[in-house]
Structure formats: C-alpha cells, structure tokens
C-alpha cells in the first residue's frame, strides 16, 4: 500500500490546497506557469470566452462618471482595451464622441461593429494608429493585466494631441494577483502618479469602490499632456 493511501483523503486535500495557496501567494507567476503553462493567462481566446459568457462584473458607475467629466462633446476618443464597450457606449451616448475602440478580443469587437462602432484589433502595447490623432485616450481596468503597462501608456500619449488627456484606471492593491489570476500588476495611487509623471506634471487621481461595501477600489489617473 502506498503511503498516500494511508492518509485520509480530507487531510490529503487540505494539504494539497494549502501547498497550492502557498505557491500562489509566494509567486503568482510561477503558480500560473505550473497550472496553465504560461505566466500571463490574458490571451485573445481567454477574453473571447470571458466576454461571450459576460462573466466580468463590477460596479463602474462612479468610475465612468468621473471619466465622462473629462470628455467634452464631440471629442475624438480612443478606448484602449475596450472589451464589449461598456464605457464606449456611454461615451458615444452622452458625449457624441468620434470614438475608436481598441481590443484584442475579436469576439468583443464583432459585437461593437454590429452597433456601428469603429474598431481596431490589436494586442497591447501595440496601438497601430497615427500620432496626435485623439483628444483623449482612456484605458479602464487594463494595465493590471499587462506585463509591460508603461509601454502602453507611452503609446497612448503618442496618439493623443498636445494638451489632450490620457486616463487610466486600475484596481487598488487590496486585490492581489494571487487572488485574481488575470492580474499581473499591483497598483497604488503613488505608483500610478509616478508612471504618469514621466509624461507631464498635470496629474490628478480619483478613487472609489468597485464592489459595494468592499475595500476593493479603483484608482483613476488623469494626465493632461504637454
């Protein structure tokens, strides 16, 4: 008889779960590599499935209201990592914006195309659009999924006109990557401010809850470009 067969199954399961959680807490990238064969599970196929099953649920009312305050009527806007267009639709409806939606999920973009939105299919940090094209570029809940978010910010700044606005929102540091396997990064207000300060000093930040009654909050960084 094997040794493991002498151990009650409840104890075996407890020990296995304990070990798995320890690995996740110590190194979320190692855990994902061992479990999924890759350190970043954010692939087009993964998000095609997520959006198709509408499994992404958050309370974005306050966040979206803060973003809309920064967008004047008829502005040229780029929604980076737009997903199924929850923010894009509000911008279009409430600001009559000239809107372009960018994402790497073909499924999500197909839904937006059916509603008449202009779309660009591209994996970040690549933004295959001309310099100084937009008044505003916004990315909501995107950077925490990226291996190199600073490269994406640089691209957003590039496609925005001088004096335009770059906005990015991320969850705060109460939501660790070992709890949310899609996440690659952890953010604080200070970290977002430091990243944006490379491109100008006209920066402000806002915060608010993502889940009612939860400590999990969003951080919104707003940069006015030089």
Short description:
The chain has helices at residues 3-6, 9-26, 28-36, 44-52, 61-69, 86-95, 106-114, 149-159, 189-196, and strands spanning 76-80, 98-103, 118-121, 134-140, 160-171, 202-209, 217-224. With 226 residues, it is an alpha/beta fold.
Salient structural properties:
single chain; alpha/beta; Rossmann fold; seven-stranded mixed sheet; 22% strand; globular
What does this structure look like?
- This protein has 226 residues and is an alpha/beta fold.
- The chain folds into two domains: 8-39; 50-224, Rossmann fold, CATH 3.40.50.
- The chain is built from nine helices and seven strands, in the order H-H-H-H-H-E-H-E-H-E-E-H-E-H-E-E.
- The radius of gyration is 20 Å and the shape is globular.
- The relative contact order is 0.13.
- The model has no long low-confidence stretch (mean pLDDT 82).
Helices and strands, with pairings:
Blueprint lengths: L2 H4 L2 H18 L1 H9 L7 H9 L8 H9 L6 E5 L5 H10 L2 E6 L2 H9 L3 E4 L12 E7 L8 H11 E12 L17 H8 L5 E8 L7 E8 L2
Parallel strand pairs: 1-2, 1-4, 2-3, 4-5
Antiparallel strand pairs: 5-7, 6-7
- Tell me the major beta sheet: 7 strands, mixed
| Number of extended strands | 7
Task: Write down the CATH class of the largest domain.
Answer: Alpha Beta
Provide the low-confidence segments as ranges.
Answer: none
Please tell me how large the radius of gyration is: 20 Å
> Total number of helical segments?
9
Strand % is 15-25%
Which structural class do you get from the secondary structure elements? alpha/beta
What percent of the residues sit in helical stretches (DSSP H or I)? 25-40%
Q: Determine the CATH topology of the largest domain.
A: Rossmann fold
Assigned CATH superfamily of the largest domain = Vaccinia Virus protein VP39
Q: Give the oligomeric state of the chains in this entry, treating copies of one chain as homo and distinct chains as hetero.
A: single chain
Strand order, largest beta sheet: 3-2-1-4-5-7-6
Overall geometry: globular
Number of domains: 2
